[in-house]
Amino acid sequence: MQKAVLVTGANRGLGLELIRQLSQAERPPRYLFAACREPEGARGRDLKNLAKCVSNIKIVKMDVDDLDSIQASAEEIQKVLKNDGLNLVINNAGININGGLNEVTPEIMMKTHKTNVVGPMMVTKAFLPALLKAAHQSDEPGLSSKKAAVINMSSIMGSVESFNIEHGKAYAYRISKAALNMVTKCLTNELTPHGILCASVHPGWVKTDMGGEKAPLTKEESIQGLIRVLSKLSDNDNGSFLDWRGERILW
Ligand SMILES: NC(=O)c1ccc[n+]([C@@H]2O[C@H](COP(=O)([O-])OP(=O)(O)OC[C@H]3O[C@@H](n4cnc5c(N)ncnc54)[C@H](OP(=O)(O)O)[C@@H]3O)[C@@H](O)[C@H]2O)c1
Fold first, then answer.
1. CATH of the domain at 76
2. Domain count for the chain
3. What is the pLDDT of residues 2-34, one digit of tens each?
4. Ligand 1 centre from 123 Cα, in Å?
5. 47 C-alpha to center of ligand 1: Å?
């Protein structure tokens, strides 16, 4: 297991479930940084309750739309880590404002792009020194999420090659996840020589506030699968797009 992991959007849905399952792993990370934008409000309650029972969960305030907030959380986390690096960044925070051509507006496009694309990029940039440190300190051979990795929570809705209208029109969301996949590719190109693995993942269609009640998968099932996939990532998976079962998804 990794020594230090960061999950964004960790106060509900898949982010909270990631923190919950990682904290209960046989060998949990020494530091589990659970980032959310309102830790003090009602939205942070479930995460705070979980953190009360688990000593390795550190809640950090981070709005991925706000560069100052990202940088402040990077400084806070580095203070906790001292000379240690950060092994795994999971860019999970995301929004989905549904709608087709009739509904979509420039504002919806820009807002979705900011959270789903610019956010993960700026988070990765802010935590790059900590990721590089982890890669440098590790004696793991090859690339892995144990050593240093950036995982972008994408969606099959962002796949151009397996476009399926039954998944919904969702222009802004689809386009943002396709762009996020390109972020994964660009990061892979730049970070591989430094020992940092990058991948996009699709968690399946999951019952959360975003996925809705009709979704076939529970958070528990999806995250169990994803954690298994993350734990097995190697050089062969670098720069790939995988689902929660470890199956490749067409770009
Ligand atoms: N559920 C699915 O079926 C499904 C399928 C494919 C991909 N995904 C992806 O999986 C990820 C998690 O989805 P989910 O189903 O758990 O969604 P969710 O239940 O709607 O939760 C979204 C999370 O993102 C956070 N967030 C949104 N904007 C943020 C910002 N600006 N800064 C920080 N945090 C922010 C939310 O925090 P607040 O509480 O503060 O709003 C919340 O914690 C998303 O990237 C989503 O696109 C989900």
1. 3.40.50.720
2. 1
3. 799 999 999 999 999 999 999 999 999 999 999
4. 15
5. 14
